[in-house]
Design a protein that fits this description.
By secondary structure, this protein is of the alpha+beta class. It has one domain (2-104): Aspartate Aminotransferase, domain 1 (Alpha-Beta Complex), CATH 3.90.1150. Helix content is 50%, strand content 19%. It is built from four helices and four strands; from the N terminus they run ααββαββα. Strands 1-2-4-3 form a four-stranded antiparallel sheet, covered by helices on one side. The relative contact order is 0.18.
Length: 109
């Protein structure tokens, strides 16, 4: 199993995709005043918001992105290890749209 991770290129894939996720999330955070902090590594990420994260979960889900709330203000993203760059871009664009709606609604859906 460990050999498959290293020799099969999955570890390199996680590093490459993780850097892409970080870049996109930081760009998204700069565009959304609701985002206080981006944190994470590899394919485990969180957006710490300036207010309750609960409305982001259904807003993202209605756009086809599964995220969860792990603390009052944290939205957690855990994409699958085999996710592609195109899928990351699509999913984060959908999350971006969800944040836009939540901000416009003042945290209400």
């Amino acid at each position: 199993m460990l050999e498959q991770l290293v020799d099969g290129g999955l570890i390199a894939q996680i590093g490459r995709i993780g850097r892409r996720v970080e870049e996109r999330l930081r760009s998204m955070a700069a565009a959304h005043p609701i985002v206080k902090e981006v944190r994470g590594a590899g394919l485990i990420w969180g957006l710490d918001l300036k207010r309750d994260a609960t409305p982001v979960v259904p807003a993202a889900l209605s756009r086809g992105v599964v995220v969860n709330r792990t603390a009052e203000t944290v939205v957690r993203l855990l994409p699958p290890l085999v996710i592609t760059s195109d899928e990351i871009d699509e999913g984060l664009a959908r999350l971006d749209a969800a944040l836009t709606v939540v901000e416009a609604d003042g945290g209400q859906l």
